[in-house]
Amino acid sequence: MLRFSGGTMETLAWYENMMAMIMAGRAAELLLLRSASTGSAGADHSDLAKATDLGLGMETKLGFAGVRPLLYLSHAVPAQALITDCDLADRVHARIETGLELATEVIKLNRPPMDALVRALFDAQALDGPAVMAILRRSYD
To answer: Which residue in 41, 42, 104, 116 has the fewest CB atoms around it within 10 Å?
Structure first.
């Protein structure tokens, strides 16, 4: 579950970082396990669903489109828009891939803290926010 505090400027860079954050779990699986599980997909609330919705919004509603960025294009059935417009689907997919690549680079740059989190998660089976923050603080001290 994610919660955002107010006061941030929702720029293209902000949305690209949000995409990377959404894709971070899959990036971690690919780095650690060398394959992705279905944990990031398969449901309307999954990471891939959220990433697709975000990418579609970036391309159709938020003014960051690669083609005609000033059009606001709401879709009653977003999946239908992606199925029928291959160029749009390609642009959304590229945004998700870029988010996955950014997440992968951030994880690689922060591998020791990530490894500490993984060990703690396997030991405890679940971590709350304060526990995660304590592990990260120790890793960066």
So the answer is: 42
| 130 CA to centre of own chain | 22
Look at residue 68 in the predicted model and tell me its pLDDT: 94
Same domain flag for 125 and 140: yes
Q: Return d(Cα 51, Cα 41) in angstroms, integer.
A: 10
Q: Average pLDDT for consecutive 10-residue bins of the chain (141 residues)?
A: 64 95 93 84 89 96 94 93 97 98 95 89 91 89 78
By the 8 A CB rule, do 29 and 37 touch?
Answer: yes
What is the extent of the structural domain holding 98? 12-109
Residues 6+ apart with CB under 8 A from 62: 15
Measured distance CA(66)–CA(97) in Å, rounded: 15
Do residues 42 and 69 both lie within one domain? yes
Residue 59 CB neighbour total at 10 angstroms: 27
On whether both 69 and 127 belong to a single domain, the answer is no
**Judgement on whether residues 44 and 70 belong to the same structural domain of the protein:** yes
Q: Report how many domains make up the chain.
A: 2
